[in-house]
Amino acid sequence: MPSAPNESGTMSETYVHGYHLRENERLQDQAGALVDLLHADTTYPDGSRVLEAGCGVGAQTVTLAQRSPGARFTSVDISADSIAEARRRVDRAGLTNVEFRQADIFALPFNPESFDHVFVCFVLEHLSRPVEALAILKRLLRPGGTITVIEGDHGSTYFYPDSPAAHAAIQCQVTMQREAGGNALIGRQVYPLLVEAGFEAVSVSPRMVYVDASRPALVDGFTRKTFTAMIEGIRESALAAGLIEPARFDAGVRDLYRTTEADGVFCYTFFKGVGKKGRGA
Ligand SMILES: C[S@@+](CC[C@H](N)C(=O)[O-])C[C@H]1O[C@@H](n2cnc3c(N)ncnc32)[C@H](O)[C@@H]1O
User: Fold this and answer.
1) What is d(CA 44, CA 91) in angstroms, rounded to the nearest whole number?
2) pLDDT tens digits for 75-131?
């Protein structure tokens, strides 16, 4: 079982997806398949200062920095190993507008109002106190600055052929993440979380990934290498936690792969929210 969140309420020691090479590759595949869906409407003006909180191995960082070459990015993560990998990727991409810092979102080494924009992707789902994290990030924004938050929601997963075993395997991930202090169903809460943290003009758009055999890049990049790989990756922990019988978990994973066949369909929805820090805030 994952242990409880640490004192700062973060998931640094219990980060449910782990920090392994396979996880890095999964995040890269995920980023590649989803770039347009998630990023097409995100660009930052020349000269703006952008904080990327929880950059991980830089899967989004490269896209952000390429799409806004005149903006200056500061990308932070609590994991030194992830930062090192992110730095390598940014260097390999020939980007010079990103600087990295190892830091905890709950103890960021920046002055208030240091940034024009904040970007947070797939991070709140791992935090036990997401509203507090958003409020901290809001303090770092200048009045009128924006925050962009992207989160998934495993409850939005449906597929053909349907499979109770596949739903049970997915539920293991939801349960483990909840027991680690996070929330794999957080996508549906992006709007209320941003409002509760005090952001104004909050607007959330659902981004549905629809996959069938006519979209082979998504069949491979999303259904296989992102979603099913993620569920497959928790097998040992889910079994060790006694959440499911091995045969049922394996049948669930098999059925998720089954959705990648010629007649299969897979759907998942991400939620992208944008909010503004009020001028009087
Ligand atoms: C699923 S990864 C997402 C990485 C990246 N944003 C992306 O979309 O690929 C979540 C990241 O949040 C980081 N993280 C978790 N808690 C954190 C905290 N308290 N402060 C900073 N980073 C944190 C983890 O180390 C991990 O790299």
Assistant:
1) 20
2) 999 999 999 999 999 999 999 999 999 999 999 999 999 999 999 999 999 999 999
Q: Which of 106, 115, 168, 180 is nearest to 141 (CA)?
A: 115
Distances (CA, A) of 213 to 160, 217, 218, 220: 12, 9, 9, 10
Contacts of 212 (CB under 8 A, 6+ apart): 219, 264, 265, 266
Pocket of ligand 1 (CB under 6 A): 10-12, 15, 17, 27, 54-56, 59-60, 77-79, 82, 104-106, 121-123, 126-127
Contact call for residues 203 and 272 (beta carbons, < 8 A): no
pTM above 0.85, yes or no: yes
Residue with tokens 């890049």: 217
Which residues on adjacent β-strands are paired with residue 152?
270
pLDDT tens for 20-37 read: 666 666 555 555 667 889
